[in-house]
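Tokens as discussed.
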């Protein structure tokens, strides 16, 4: 499947929310051509949408969210960077845990189950990837994940679609 097209579709879906909140949403495509690679076309958009949605939701009006993709050898790295509230240092290691929501986000009164990032991590891991975050409270966050793009590193499709 075409990964760039998938990302563009997800961005198109969330662009209405970004406009409503007066947030600039941009997409920086990789400079190199990406050969098609195998990924779960149902689950990957869910992971992307969750990350971009969160970035928009936790960024104050007038802020910006940037999605970028870079080819790095046998992997691609996808980054979702925002100018939002950021994540407190002591909360970061629990970020991808089930039902976890950071203290500063709870104060914002945004709806959330605390399952989103747990599901995102699950999807990325099942694709043979890794996810992490760089964040500074009050300055924003960058969630970034890698996905293998060469056949020998990509898990079999049945492993990708299994869910915890």
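Sequence:
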């Amino acid at each position: 499947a075409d990964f760039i097209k998938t990302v563009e579709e997800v961005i198109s879906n969330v662009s209405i929310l970004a406009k409503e909140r007066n947030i600039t949403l941009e997409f920086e495509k990789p400079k190199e051509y990406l050969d098609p690679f195998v990924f779960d076309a149902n689950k990957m958009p869910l992971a992307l949408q969750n990350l971009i949605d969160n970035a928009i939701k936790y960024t104050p009006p007038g802020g910006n969210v940037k999605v970028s993709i870079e080819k790095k050898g046998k992997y691609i790295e996808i980054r979702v960077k925002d100018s939002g509230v950021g994540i407190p240092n002591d909360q970061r290691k629990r970020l991808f845990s089930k039902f976890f929501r950071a203290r500063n986000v709870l104060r914002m009164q945004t709806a959330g189950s605390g399952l989103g990032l747990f599901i995102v991590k699950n999807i990325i891991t099942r694709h043979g990837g890794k996810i992490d975050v760089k964040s500074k409270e009050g300055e924003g966050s960058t969630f970034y994940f890698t996905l293998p793009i060469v056949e020998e590193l990509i898990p079999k499709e049945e492993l990708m679609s299994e869910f915890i």
